[in-house]
Specification:
With 516 residues, this protein is mainly alpha-helical. A three-stranded antiparallel β-sheet has the order 2-3-4, with no helix packed on it. Strands 1-5 form a two-stranded antiparallel sheet. The protein is 69% helix and 3% strand. The protein has a single domain, classed as Proton glutamate symport protein. A hairpin with a 7-residue loop joins strand 2 and strand 3. The chain is globular. Belongs to the dicarboxylate/amino acid:cation symporter (DAACS) (TC 2.A.23) family.
Length: 516
């Protein structure tokens, strides 16, 4: 462009420049547009894969809902639309189960292998459990305060199938086994309400496609079932049943064995196994990122399907969704700016405001990038001037980036609570179930993939583990809130990890060494 302007200004006034066009000018224009087009395409791609993409899909779905609000969709058409949206969840579940299994193995192996002293290892683990437990406990506190505001209509499912037992008869009369309400004896008689029985056991065969939720006679039976799930009798069956507790326990044992074998022997076989698992995890994360790519498109059938099927209305869903988003922001603010700085101040006797100012750059970078993994070098640089043992601090940051995820645990716990309440399943939130949710949120936070909306498939898998029920339609609308709360969850992860590393770095003497 500069050469073109010089040539034009040098031409005599009132004359026409009849010289042939400069070929360099055309080449420069082509280069300019060629460089501009990839820039625009890259920006549009970032918008599509970032927060604007799912938001655009949600807006498009709401527009379609408004256009067809007076059209009575046939139930088959509505269910087909819902089935298309469910493909998104099915694909995520298919990938996240093996990914969660491998990630737990690698995280536990890294933790076991990194610290040479048992005291330092348990000290770091205890601090991580403390900060993560505070996040989960806050989710339970909000459930106790505002749980009634989240209650929705009962989720439609078949608790137990009905059956009748027909008695043999000499004539054509139909007689059925029934109970005499006075004597309590069984006898044959004409059909009435007393001839219908529940199948409360597994004696009679049930169609494989029939939905049967987990039902327990008392808290003791539920506790025994939860304990039994911790030890899998068949690891392949645990994969098929999406039993996260069984898979997590098995993965924990493998991770400890892998970490100890690498520390004691350092053999090439152990290293090859670890590298194989790392490559498998990276491959599954790539597959999951491909699925996340179609989130804006999947939002359309996930939102419109339940409305067309008349199971949900915008007026009933969005108020509860707004309460969820408000609770999430308030809980994240309390945990980030109150609880975590207080924990740091108690264990290090330092100013919480000074700690927040020291980590400000890392928090802003994490909020913008949406990835605690990318923010790790920035976090290290922020904490280095404020600790006495930089090696210990950096090792704690590196290991904690894998298993110390306050934001992921808070997200999973609060999302599960919202699903149970919105689906009308509050009666299932027994004390035993809440304890299992806490354990699942802790283990599930280790399985959250470092991609946008990475916690979504983990929540789905845990809900299936707890209930044996398909994901309620209402969870589709929770994807709208995911657009805004995902960066907040990242900030919680970064600060929670920074608090633990800050405490370890200040309380550890320089003579304590690590195998990083």
């Amino acid at each position: 462009m500069a050469k073109h302007d010089d040539a034009a200004s040098s031409a005599p006034s009132g004359t026409t420049n009849t010289n042939p066009p400069n070929p360099l000018f055309g080449r420069q224009r082509d280069d300019l547009f060629a460089s501009h087009e990839p820039e625009v395409a890259s920006r549009l791609k970032r918008w599509f894969l970032g927060a604007p993409g799912p938001l655009f899909g949600a807006i498009l779905a709401l527009i379609l809902t408004y256009i067809f609000k007076d059209v009575h969709m046939h139930i088959t058409v509505a269910r087909t639309i819902i089935a298309i949206g469910n493909l998104y969840f099915r694909a995520m579940e298919c990938v996240v189960m093996p990914l969660a299994f491998i990630d737990i193995i690698l995280n536990v192996a890294e933790f076991t292998h990194s610290f040479r002293t048992h005291r330092l290892r348990w000290h770091t683990l205890g601090l991580a459990l403390l900060t993560t437990g505070l996040a989960i406990g806050q989710a339970f506190t909000w459930e106790a305060l505002l749980g009634a505001e989240l209650d929705g209509a009962r989720y439609v499912y078949i608790e137990l199938p009905f059956m009748e037992l027909k008695c043999p008869s000499a004539n054509n009369a139909s007689l059925y086994l029934q109970s005499d309400p006075i004597t309590g004896r069984m006898a044959c008689g004409a059909e009435d309400n007393s001839t219908t029985f529940y199948i409360g056991d597994h004696v009679f065969p049930v169609l494989p496609g029939l939905i049967r939720r987990k039902d327990y006679a008392n808290a003791g039976d539920e506790l025994q079932s939860a304990v039994a799930d911790l030890i899998p009798s068949n690891i392949f069956q645990a994969f098929i049943a999406h039993n996260l507790l069984s898979l997590a326990t098995f993965a924990l044992l493998i991770g400890v064995a892998l970490g100890l074998s690498g520390k004691n022997q350092g053999s090439d076989a152990t290293n090859r196994l670890r590298h194989t698992l790392v490559e498998a995890s990276a491959t599954l994360e790539t597959m999951l990122s491909y699925i996340i790519t179609v989130t804006p498109i999947a939002m359309v059938p996930m939102i419109t399907g339940p409305i067309f099927a008349r199971t949900h209305t915008l007026s009933s869903v969005f108020p509860r969704l707004g309460i969820y988003a408000g609770v999430y922001v308030a809980g994240a603010a309390i945990h980030t700016f109150v609880m975590l700085p207080l924990v740091s101040a108690i264990f290090t006797a330092s100013s919480p405001l000074r700690f927040l100012r020291a980590t400000k750059e890392a928090l802003w970078y994490g909020f913008g990038s949406g990835s605690s993994r990318k923010t790790l070098p920035v976090t290290m640089r922020c904490l280095d001037p404020h600790v006495s043992n930089r090696v210990a601090c950096r090792a704690a940051l590196k290991v904690g980036n894998c298993f110390n995820k306050n934001g992921g645990a808070f997200h999973i716990a609060l999302s599960l609570i919202w699903i149970f309440h919105d689906a009308g399943l509050k009666f299932m939130l027994t004390p035993v179930k809440m304890a299992v949710i806490a354990v699942c949120a802790l283990l599930g936070s280790m399985c959250v993939a470092p991609v946008r909306n990475g916690a979504v498939p983990v929540v789905i898998v845990i809900f299936t583990t707890l209930t044996d029920l398909p994901t309620p339609y209402a969870y589709s609308y929770l994807m709208i809130a995911e657009t805004f709360i995902d960066p907040i969850s990242t900030v919680m992860n970064i600060l929670g990890n920074a608090v633990v590393a800050h405490i370890v770095g200040r309380q550890t003497t320089p003579t304590t060494m690590f195998a990083i």
